[in-house]
Amino acid sequence: MKANELRALSQDDLAVKEKELTQELFNIRFQLHTGRLENTAKIDAVRKDIARVKTILQEKRG
């Protein structure tokens, strides 16, 4: 997800998005440890998306 798309969202929407991404990261890690994950690069992508969301939330709150 791009930063411009995230900046268009409200703070409530960003908080929901952060929870969704955190849950997705948990599921990806679970798949990794059970041996069902094929694309390990997805972990890094989701972590970066979470960081983007948190950064933009901080900008809006600050």
What structural keywords apply?
62 residues, mainly alpha, Helix Hairpins, 3 helices, structural constituent of ribosome, Ribosomal_protein_uL29, Ribosomal_uL29
Give a structural overview.
The protein has 62 residues and is mainly α. The chain has one domain: Orthogonal Bundle (Helix Hairpins), CATH 1.10.287. It has 3 helices and no strands. Helix 2 packs antiparallel against helix 3. The mean pLDDT is 96. One of its GO terms (molecular function) is structural constituent of ribosome. It comes from Geobacter argillaceus.
In short:
The protein has three helices and no strands. By secondary structure, the chain is mostly helical. It is elongated.
Number of domain units = 1
Count of DSSP E strands?
0
Shape: elongated
CATH architecture: Orthogonal Bundle
Average pLDDT taken over every residue? 96
Number of helices: 3
Fraction in beta strands: under 5%
Uncertain spans, ≥5 residues at pLDDT below 50?
Answer: none
Order of helices and strands: HHH
CATH structural class: Mainly Alpha
Family: Belongs to the universal ribosomal protein uL29 family.
GO molecular function, one term: structural constituent of ribosome
Organism: Geobacter argillaceus
GO cellular component, one term: cytosolic large ribosomal subunit
